[in-house]
Specification:
Layout (H helix, E strand, L loop, with lengths): L9 H9 L7 H11 L4 E4 L6 H15 L10 E4 L3 H15 L8 E4 L5 H7 L5 E4 L1 H9 L10 E4 L2 H6 L3 H10 L5 E6 L4 H10 L4 E4 L10 E7 L5 H11 L5 E5 L2 H13 L4 E4 L5 H13 L4 E5 H4 L9 E4 L6 H8 L9 E7 L4 H11 L5 E3 L19
Parallel strand pairs: 1-6, 1-7, 2-4, 2-5, 3-4, 5-6, 8-13, 8-14, 9-11, 9-12, 10-11, 12-13
Helix pairs in contact: 2-3, 3-4, 6-8, 14-15
Length: 390
Amino acid sequence: MTFEQLKLSKNLQQTLAEQGYNKPYPIQVQAIPAILQRKDVLGIAQTGSGKTAGYVLPILSLLEKAELGKNRHIDALIVVPTRELAVQVQEVVKIFAQGLNAPMKSMAVFGGVSINPQMIGMQGVRILVATPGRLIELVESKAMSLAEIKMLVLDEADKMLNLGFEEEMKKILSFLPKKRQNLLFSATLSPELKEIQQMMLDNPEVIKVEAETENIELIQQTAYHVLDEKKGPLLRYLILSGNFNQVLIFTSSVYKADQVADKLAKHGIDARATHSKKSHKARTEALRDFKSGDLRVLVATDLLSRGIDIEFLPYVINYELPRSPKDYIHRIGRTGRAESPGEAISFITPEDLHHFKIIQKKMGKWVKLTYTEDMDLTPPPPKYTLTKEE
């Protein structure tokens, strides 16, 4: 199955190719056609299964053909439980919307920050990603309207129920038009979710995707206990002392990806960052050079990790741990492929210890933790080779 066979717009197909997405994931194969046919969807799939692109792509494809509505009247609303997920989903929207013929403005709104810039920014927004509390505040302050919503997505619904958003969700549903397309995604199908499903969905297409299993037996895993301020020196020491080439480094944010790549480059290690704020050209060139071996280090966020598919990748480094065990396994699964061994290295700060124990328990494998407090992290001098002229 290809993205072309899924009947997405030509612009989206081109963007997918530029991002290195070669074929759709199982959740996308089933969800995209159903959403394009304007059916309600209930999708049960784990974090890291590709479900975000599974609903973002068809939403963009449908809105690309739709007429512009009134200003400050949102076309598609995506409700998520956390600020982090809101930012992540909106970055996915931005990546795929860049290749459309006309601008498709999107925005992420959440609490914990001033509401005023978000109110001003609602001008021209067609796709809104929001946490429940802040969404209600914006509606009640008349910053925008949900009266003409065409599509509603409830992502990670199980987490929203666990975090106690039932009353907020009922209030949000009261703001929406009765005629709309509803898309509900969750990792589990709990009794509470069934209640929301009955309230929201009309004869839905039910999609259940079993969690994919990564073969991690060929991957040699190592973990280093390190203070946050010592991560940079440790990273440079490992790359230079081990003479690492083709190293994929994961960070949890765009800012950190840029910071790590810049610091490596300043110390003479060829490194570049790839993330949603880079241009298509920059991302494509970085990935091409990395795959060919012309770029020594590529620093990426989880958002773009699924576009990085390299048959023989020797090193993956978790500069920061991901938010879920599934994401951890997916990250380290970039190496150890095609029956070739690979090495996965994780940096564990004192604050990360509990989370790392949970990851290991879920993975069913324990990783030896090396303490770096007494290590000499001074990198060795660069190797010098005589040229023919010398």
